[in-house]
């Protein structure tokens, strides 16, 4: 049984100063914890949160309402040590997927002068930007809807835009928009999504947004596996915690934010947040080292028969492969400010992946590959090729992703591919095999920018890796890979 340290919430009042879109596990275990610590320290705060789910999980919203927004976060350092926190900073929970009164309420909260920050965790696909180019996908049905019905939006950028419009019309200064999703230049990308929607509708509003609205970038980091029956029963048995809204996560947490909040912000530094002028180097480091390795572990690990990150990193050949990717294909692409110990960061990551108290399923990470690969692997691969370096690890990752998206895992039934492009993948798989299948994938412009897919060195490396996988299977291929390096 682990030793449990309990951190109760203090009796405290928090007014709503932040509206959040995307009430998932990550938000509850990351941003909400920083705000809770701030509230516990000061005993009162203007930075309570109204948090909304846009499309999924109405049941969680209802549960949180029954619990007056209260829930627990269990932070596992390892099997032996857990911190259990009470969270009370979520003052209101909304589900706006059905539109109507709750959407209106959310928009009213966002338009209220007391709301000074709007934060988002809606996952990469929630911005409707092309993963390869960052352009708004104006043909996407949800965006077509928001362009036609801007007052009753469905997408996150549409909701942010309508709330900003209300403030613009009422002469209320705009809130700051803080994107907390794992995208490169996430502040700029969010700005692009919102202004991409605004421009065709109202040029005055679009200009006001361009001139007045701050979209600072930030890097968020905490491993928060999706909750499942096993996680809930462990909480009940080990911690006597019977909260169905609880979240389990690692004890590590990091947040680096660009300091640009015209209407003010919490004293986040007190809670260990790093406030910086330029977040991009931190973001790139995290995307390529942590998330890049995660995606490799997911596709390669699943093909090698593993289920969780812990299992995958416990496979000696795969661990060696990941260390090689970090040292030879991720680290050389980074340009960090002085004083950042990248090798130490990479070592710590391997230890975090090996945290056996988290059941982090590889299938969770494997979701939405089309949205994740460009920033995790492909931008770095271009730099590596420019520098005349090898991209063998990345190429094996791309080959494994293609196989995962088109073939059942060894010894299994065909799996459901959770990705906005899943229909396209199925179509390619039905029409092509082998080399032609790989070519069809590499020609997907939404994923592979032409500047990369046009390079023979890139295509050849992926083709070689794919045919090696077809010939030998992943487990054996990893062994050969490890033996030759
Ligand atoms: C993961 C991330 O699911 C995924 O794609 O790589 O959610 C990862 O756990 C977080 O970014 C860690 O901060």
In terms of DSSP E residues, the strand content is 5-15%
Write down the Rg. Answer: 22 Å
Could you tell me which ligands this complex binds, including any ions or cofactors? D-mannonic acid
Helix content estimate: 40-55%
Q: Count of helical segments?
A: 21
Structural class given helices, strands, pairing? alpha/beta
Give the count of structural domains: 2
CATH-defined architecture of the largest domain:
3-Layer(aba) Sandwich
Q: Which residues sit in consecutive blocks of at least 5 with pLDDT less than 50? A: none
Q: On the 0-100 scale, what is the average pLDDT?
A: 96
Specify the CATH homologous superfamily of the largest domain.
Answer: NAD(P)-binding Rossmann-like Domain
CATH fold-level topology of the largest domain: Rossmann fold
CATH class designation of the largest domain: Alpha Beta
Strand order in the largest sheet: 6-3-2-7-8
**Based on CA inertia axes, which overall geometry fits?**
globular
Domain Mannitol dehydrogenase C-terminal: 278-469
Protein name: Mannitol dehydrogenase
Keywords: NAD, Oxidoreductase
InterPro entries: 6-PGluconate_DH-like_C_sf, 6PGD_dom2, Mannitol_DH, Mannitol_DH/Oxidoreductase, Mannitol_DH_C, Mannitol_DH_CS, Mannitol_DH_N, NAD(P)-bd_dom_sf
Overview features:
single chain; 485 residues; alpha/beta; Rossmann fold; N-(1-d-carboxylethyl)-l-norvaline Dehydrogenase, domain 2; 2 domains; five-stranded parallel beta sheet; four-stranded mixed beta sheet; 21 helices; 12 strands; globular; binds D-mannonic acid
